[in-house]
Each structure stands twice: as C-alpha cells, then as structure tokens.
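We were asked to recover a plausible sequence for a given structure. The inputs and outputs are reproduced exactly as logged, with field labels preserved.

PROBLEM: sequence recovery
POSITIONS: 274
GIVEN STRUCTURE:
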C-alpha cells in the first residue's frame, strides 16, 4: 500500500494560473470542494475576507498529528523536519452527514450551527496562489485512507513496506506532507482534501494560538472569487439565516444561503405498499 505521493509537475497552463499552488499525487478531476465551518467562524471569515488555516498540532485526532509532532533527527540530517505547516481541510462529498455534526462546537449559539460552502476548486487555487504572493507555497493533496490504527504507527518500523519509500533517503517535503495526509481507514467516508501552506514569511499573515496547542493563520481571500453555493444547518432559525445572508451581502456575495434538506422527505407517512 503506497503512502508517499510526489509533487506533480505542473503544466505551463497551470503554472500561469496558480504557480504557487502545487498538487500532491494525481490531480483530482472533481470540480467542486465543500468547506464546513461553525457559523461563528464562517461569519468572521466572511466579515474579514479571510480563511483560517490550522497548524496540524491543533488537530484533535492523535493519529493525524502523529507525524507532525514526531522526532525526525535520525532520518533528517539537515534538521529541517518537522517544519511548520498550516492546513485547511475540505471534502469532495456534497452530501456528508458526518461533517454537519463534526463542525459544531457547542449545543447553542452560532458555534452550534454549521455552514457548508461549495467551492470551485480551480478558482480557489487561483485565489490562494494570488493571496500567497511571494510568501510561500500551497500544496493540495487527497487524504490517504489505507491503514488501520496499528498500521499507521508501524509506518516507522524499518520492516514496513512503506519505510524505505518515505524514510530510506531521508525525509523530504513530499514525504513529510504525505504523512500528514494519512488518516485511518474508518474515516474514508470523509473523502477529504487538504491544502498545506509552507510559508516563507509567516509575519505576512495574522497569527493566533500558542506553540504548544498549535497556531492558526488567516489568509486574506476574496470569497466572491470561488464560492458557488452556501448551505446552512437545517436547525438554524430565520434570524440566524438572515444574519448569514446579511454577512454574505456585505462580503459582496450575491448567492443567497439555503437550508440543508438532508432529512427532508418528498412523501407523507405512512406510505402504502401496493
């Protein structure tokens, strides 16, 4: 089960459009990505025209941040790794019931409501590439759902079939980022895509958080450049829907948010079996 993915060589056309956004592994043919946020975070991002990227050390799943916090000194004589990376997670699945529950952080208030943004992938790459300017490079990759718990921890075993591919010649950037794409097989329903930022100048961005718990940066982006649709938690009140609609209008987004209809049914109960 191959884990390491290489940084793809970009075509001349891609270099012209998004020179600072590189692809890890095969370029996905899916046109759209979906970004879920709690409503409180969504409103702040819309208001400030920005998107939050998190340092992997802030991730809750211990298996996901395992290789970000690892000690590489035996396989990295240059002492370049682990290096500071910031990540933002998306899914390729339009209907993802689990995501609606994952991105709520309380039982009440705006942080207890979820918002889904439908994003044009190509346009997002262009917007992100422009936002980075000369301050770093973004790497886009699809999460790898091939291992169960024990297999992930055994990736560092020299007898592992993946060890030589990842660590045999010393850890490099593609190997390091590949490890940050590894997720347990039981989460494959997420179908997640991650964008990593390798920044040359972190001071060019707004930074929050602490070293021990992981930091967050906010990248200035014009949401109107890549948003295709906005869907809000079906539990949201009319007032909450109006708050989001107003925030979108102020951000220059003409798209009107709609409610999630995941559990809506086109029939009446009980049905009759003929």
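RECOVERED SEQUENCE:
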């Amino acid at each position: 089960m191959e884990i390491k993915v290489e940084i793809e060589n970009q075509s001349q056309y891609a270099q012209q459009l998004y020179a600072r956004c590189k692809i890890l592994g095969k370029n996905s043919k899916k046109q759209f990505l979906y970004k879920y946020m709690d409503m409180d975070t969504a409103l702040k991002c819309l208001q400030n025209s920005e998107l939050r990227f998190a340092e992997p050390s802030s991730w809750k799943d211990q298996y996901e941040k395992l290789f970000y916090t690892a000690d590489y000194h035996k396989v990295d004589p240059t002492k370049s790794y682990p290096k500071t990376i910031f990540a933002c997670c998306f899914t390729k699945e339009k209907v993802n019931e689990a995501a609606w529950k994952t991105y709520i952080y309380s039982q009440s208030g705006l942080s207890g409501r979820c918002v889904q943004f439908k994003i044009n992938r190509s346009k997002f790459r262009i917007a992100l590439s422009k936002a980075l300017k000369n301050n770093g490079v973004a790497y886009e990759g699809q999460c790898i759902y091939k291992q169960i718990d024990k297999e992930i921890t055994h990736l560092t075993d020299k007898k592992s079939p993946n060890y030589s591919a990842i660590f045999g010649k010393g850890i490099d950037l593609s190997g390091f980022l590949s490890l940050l794409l590894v997720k347990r097989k039981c989460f494959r329903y997420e179908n997640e895509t991650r964008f990593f930022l390798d920044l040359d100048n972190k001071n060019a961005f707004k930074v929050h958080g602490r070293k021990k718990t992981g930091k967050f940066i906010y990248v200035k982006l014009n949401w109107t450049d890549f948003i295709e649709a906005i869907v809000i938690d079906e539990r949201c009140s009319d007032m909450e829907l109006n708050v989001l609609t107003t925030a979108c209008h102020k951000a220059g987004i003409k798209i009107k948010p709609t409610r999630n209809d995941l559990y809506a049914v086109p029939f009446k109960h009980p049905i009759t079996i003929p």
